[in-house]
Amino acid sequence: MNNIIAGWLGEKATSAGLLQGLDARRYQLLDDLYIPNGRGGTAQIDHVIVSQFGLFVIETKNRSGLICGAPDESHWRQICHGKTYHFQNPMAQNNEHIRALARLLNLRWTAFHSIIFFCGEARFAQRMPFHVRTEGVTTVVHSKNVVILSSEEAARAGRVLQASKQRGRGLEARH
Contact 72/20 with Cβ under 8 angstroms? Predict the structure, then answer.
């Protein structure tokens, strides 16, 4: 399957799972955001969950096979059917997304939680941090239960991101 189609399918499946696993009164889910990256381009962010417990920034990877990589490596590897494929370190990629969101929303770094989700039939070659998952994304979200944003701050972030999503529809074709 084409990587673009596989990625899109993975993002849609992740979104559906998140909607089922989260209380809509406490969490606002926004998918497929295009926001300024601070370097004259745009960042495409798969999912952002806005809540008083912070903003959860989710990078979805639809990969199968063995995933090899460490937090400090620039690229990770996917080994599947005897072939090796290289891809950008998703932890570093999501940190860039968080930087762009922090700048756009004028929020401190501590207001964000990074989650990397591998859907598909991926397995890890080594132990990964708690926020790098092949299942249980809502487990990570629910593990963060300390209020760090006021209801006004969370509502404002949701409004800004929703407006950005509407403006970003025109950026999709150029991304």
Answer: no
C-beta separation of 78 from 87 below 8 A: yes
Strands (E), 95-147: 112-119, 122-124, 132-133
CA–CA separation, 122 vs 54, rounded Å?
Answer: 28
pLDDT in tens, the chain (175 residues): 555 555 555 555 555 556 567 888 999 999 999 999 888 889 999 999 999 999 999 999 989 999 999 999 999 999 999 999 999 999 999 999 999 999 999 999 999 999 999 988 899 999 999 999 998 888 899 999 999 999 999 999 999 999 987 776 544 444 4
Q: Is 157 left (phi over 0), alpha (psi -120 to 50) or beta?
A: alpha
Number of helices and strands in the chain (H, E) = 4, 9
